[in-house]
Write a structure and sequence with these properties.
Length: about 400
């Protein structure tokens, strides 16, 4: 229940959960719900995962926080595992995806100044979403989120997503560009999947122009799209990427991960975070990343995602209200022909959780551990939900 003591920033549904178990969550009456949202791509291992729970409990009994003025063994171990899993070199840990992106912006600007560019520019995309801080809001491409917070932060150049030609034109006309910052799949925009050659062509374009290629993998990372990170599926290497959401299965953490050419830019005092990378968050992150990599859960995400997409395509192919079903792995969007937030209350009655993004897109982000029986339940339930929704409008 919402109260006047909490700021009015969310359209909260009238339901609270008391516990979770795997892909299921339970309310105070014991009613269970299939969690096909994972806390918006956060709980990739589901709820109350034994390895993560044990790591949190153990660390809570030892030490939670003592700042980055001292070594934090779990932080060092998590950074090493991220490096070995991705091929990049170093990580900075913070508390959220927005903070990770802020870190990336500072590094991109430092890179530009090192090249002698006094006012470096970063290319960002139409309809992108990178966070709610002033800088990440300025880099995002949705005017609805920006309205009322102007003046926005300068230094961003916007082009259409999935459009290499527009970037090639910029290369010829603007010599202050230092980086391209892009989501491998646009999540908040409605699960917009680019052409399969988009990231490789971006990589080649950045190489030709000596730009950085920086990826926002906050929603696409941690196994969600069928690889540990989406850039690995595209068979490219970014100069830097950001991750958060699924990195610690619900404990707040974010990371900016860099390649070798950026390693000398930050010096002590240039950047920091009081809580970032503390003992608790990194212990949870380490347990989460170990479980995902040891079990290769991205493979299950790829298989289950394909089963989900193909099953929904079969069930919904005769629904004229469905404009498109799109996605990769366990990151799926179903676009309807009208705004559809009211469908969420119907979904609660049917015992399933997802959300609506970009007003018209049902967004499904199930846990990476989901199995065929739960996938088939989603395939059965979604068409019923959609039929019931359209019967009321």
């Amino acid at each position: 229940m919402t109260t006047s003591y909490v700021m009015n920033t969310y359209k909260t549904l009238p339901l609270a959960f008391e516990r979770g178990e795997g892909v299921w969550v339970f309310d105070k009456n014991g009613q269970k719900y299939l969690d096909a949202l994972s806390g918006i791509a956060v709980c990739g291992l589901g709820h109350a995962h034994p390895a993560v729970t044990a790591a949190i409990v153990k660390q809570a009994g030892l030490i939670l926080h003592n700042s980055n003025l001292y070594e934090i063994p779990s932080q060092l171990a998590l950074a090493e595992l991220l490096s070995k899993a991705t091929g990049l070199k170093q990580s900075f840990f913070c508390n959220s995806g927005a903070e990770a992106n802020e870190t990336a912006f500072k590094l991109m600007r430092l890179f530009g100044h090192k090249k002698g560019i006094s006012e470096p520019k970063i290319v960002v995309m139409d309809n992108a979403f990178h966070g709610r801080t002033l800088a990440t809001l300025s880099a995002s491409g949705n005017k609805k989120y920006q309205q009322g917070f102007e003046p926005l932060m300068p230094g961003f150049v916007r082009v259409p997503y999935n459009d290499i030609a527009s970037l090639e034109k910029l290369a010829d006309t603007d010599k202050n560009i230092v980086a391209v910052f892009v989501e491998p799949i646009q999540g908040e925009a409605g699960i917009i999947v680019p052409a399969v050659d988009y990231l490789p062509r971006l990589r080649a374009l950045c190489d030709r122009n000596q730009w950085l290629l920086v990826l926002d993998e906050i929603q696409t990372g941690m196994g969600r799209t069928g690889n540990l990170f989406a850039f690995q599926g595209a068979k490219i290497m970014p100069d830097m990427f950001t991750t958060a959401k699924g990195l610690a299965n619900g404990i707040p953490i974010g990371a900016c991960v860099i390649g070798e050419q950026l390693m000398d830019l930050f010096k002590p005092g240039l950047h920091g975070s009081t809580f970032g990378g503390n003992h608790l968050s990194c212990a949870a992150g380490l347990a989460t990343l170990k479980e995902i990599t040891d079990q290769k859960l991205w493979e299950n995400a790829g298989r289950m995602g394909q089963r989900l997409k193909e099953g929904l395509e079969r069930q919904l192919c005769k629904h004229p209200q469905i404009k498109e079903i799109r996605g990769r792995g366990l990151m799926l969007g179903i676009e309807l022909d009208r705004p559809c937030r009211d469908i969420l209350m119907i979904a609660l009655k049917k015992g399933i959780l997802f959300n609506v993004t970009n007003d018209t897109v049902l967004r499904l982000l199930p846990p990476l551990i989901i199995q065929e029986a739960e996938i088939d339940l989603i395939i059965k339930t979604l068409p019923e939900l959609i039929d019931e929704f359209y019967a009321t409008v």
